[in-house]
Amino acid sequence: MVLILGSLELGMIYGLLALGIFITFRILNIPDLTCEGSFTLGLSLSAALTRVGHPFLGMIAGIIGGMAAGGVTGFLQTRCKIHPILAGILVMSGLYPINLLILGGSPNLAIMNSGTIFKYAGAFLGNEGAKIAVSLIFTGITTIALAMFFKTHTGLAIRATGDNEDMVRASSINADGMKAAALSIGNGVIALCGAVIAQYQNYADINSGAGTLVLGLASVIIGEVIIFRRDLTLSLIAAVVGSIVYRFIIALAMKLPFFDASYLKLVSAVIVAVALSIPAIKARARLARIKKEGGRYA
Amino acid sequence: MLDIQNVTKVFGKDTVNEHTALDDLSLHLDKGEFVTIVGSNGAGKSTLFNAICGTFFSDSGHISLDGADITYMPEHKRSKMIGRVFQDPMKGTSPNLTIEENIALAYARSKHGPLGFALNKRDLKIFRDALADFDMGLEDRMKTKVGLLSGGQRQVVTLLMCTVVPPKLLLLDEHTAALDPATSEKIMKITNDMIRKNNLTTLMITHNINSALKTGTRTIMMDSGSIILDISGEERDKMSLNELLDLYTRRSKKVFDNDRMLLGTE
Ligand SMILES: Nc1ncnc2c1ncn2[C@@H]1O[C@H](COP(=O)(O)OP(=O)(O)O)[C@@H](O)[C@H]1O
Ligand SMILES: [Mg+2]
Prior knowledge:
The structure holds two protein chains of two kinds. Chain A is mainly α. Chain A has twelve helices and two strands. Chain A has helices at 2-27, 34-51, 55-78, 84-102, 117-125, 127-149, 153-163, 165-170, 175-201, 212-226, 232-255, 264-297; strands at residues 108-110, 203-205. A two-stranded antiparallel sheet of chain A has the order 1-2. Chain A is globular, with a radius of gyration of 20 Å. Chain B is of the alpha/beta class. Chain B has a domain at 1-81 and 170-175 and 200-266: P-loop containing nucleotide triphosphate hydrolases (Rossmann fold), CATH 3.40.50. Chain B contains ten helices and ten strands. Chain B has helices spanning 45-53, 75-78, 99-107, 109-112, 121-134, 151-163, 181-198, 209-214, 233-238, 241-252, and strands at residues 2-11, 19-29, 34-39, 60-65, 68-69, 82-85, 169-173, 202-205, 218-223, 226-232. In chain B, the strands form two sheets. In chain B, strands 6-7-8-3-9-10 form a six-stranded mixed beta sheet, with helices on both faces. In chain B, strands 2-1-4-5 form a four-stranded antiparallel beta sheet, covered by helices on one side. The A-B interface holds A 148, 151-157, 159-160, 163-164, 166-175 and B 53, 75-77, 79-80, 84, 86, 90-97, 101-102, 104-106, 108-109, 112-119, 161. The structure holds adenosine-5'-diphosphate (ADP) and magnesium ion. Magnesium ion is lined by residues 45-46 of chain B.
């Protein structure tokens, strides 16, 4: 039971990460490494502000911080013409000392004794109830807000920018602006994920962001396998569902005697690598078939 | 309406590949004029469109549209006033967006602002009616992703996107060249109807010399970045295909050569 609830909660919260990665990777087609820094930025801001008695402000500051980080990456990519992956790495790297500063100069910060949103909600709903409810509310509201946003004109324009940038450039849409906006929104959501996690686990660590890109990608991909994406709203829901399923898979794997927590990154990496190579494998298979049949008639 | 004055564009300046794609070119279009452009491969026709759209800034010269100097206006600002259809049907639409989303992208911002919902019932009816006019059955497939459509269908969607809010200037760059002859003819007819209905000021590059003389109100011929022939009115009405090709050979001192050129009768 604890295992099921825990996986569900973590799955929902990390669903936010999956939503952010979905925006940058699936909509914009950019593997954006900013997320590793913006996740920790949200986490650090949330922990630091919770410690001084402002857990709500911590969430908001997390979102704003993440959006700013994504905005900087967007600026570097579009205005300074820096390679998208490098732009992300630069911001991620640059955020490290800032995050350390926010954490008060030490690599981790415990907030066991501070009032988190989970604790406030726990007063009404009980501990477990609060965890489920708070996770559900944050992820639910974010999913709905994003689904609505991507139906607005700007939302459509962002999707078109990832889809056919040439067309967007030739239309009256500012493609660079749309890219920066999408990176900003994606990283805002990812930082919110970090902010919620900090208060969920009562603890922030400077290295929490490492591997978040692959983790988010794995969730997005699992979601796509489960819910075949037909429209954007479904795709967003799929990302969250993928994240929840991913947590269950991990919880089960952890039961195996030889499985160590450090293997998780390998598992995620394998999932992502395999899933992303499927189109290439299919193409090879098709070629091989053509060759074989060609040989038969030669 | 459109005024191009002494525009020059040199690619690869000071390199071995230096190439003057537009050579001190001037052109004036009045409102409502429908000009067809012909010329051999590499004459600079598409480059002229790029200069008008702001894909790059020209090295010298001035361009103004509807009285405003747009020489240094960024591309995305100009494109509010200019509709452009390319030869490649893939270029003008977003494949993962549905037909209605693509059209809404072109339409809705002018109506509902950047954070307004892009699709509403009233707009969808406008799109559906406009598509129904084309008689290609697209009005019943509004929720289909554009990536699943044929080239001709995609060009129709692109044309509608360019004209759903009538632009000050419409640029068509061999927009039927990638289509089969029957579809090409159909799209050309749709194009004509659309231009006439909205009285659009239009520049159309075409590989079909015959249709260049028959459609529109004026024909210009380009070679090596310059306009070598500009005919309209009676002179144009009387001009035969052979006379036009003769003129080309005399003025450019070469034989007309365009690998997509069609001399065929329609
Ligand atoms: N971006 C560019 N960089 C370098 N050369 C270019 C570029 N665009 C066009 N050109 C050259 O300019 C000439 C005119 O091209 P274009 O306008 O596309 O011809 P067309 O009349 O066939 O449309 C060609 O020789 C082409 O190679
Ligand atoms: Mg061309």
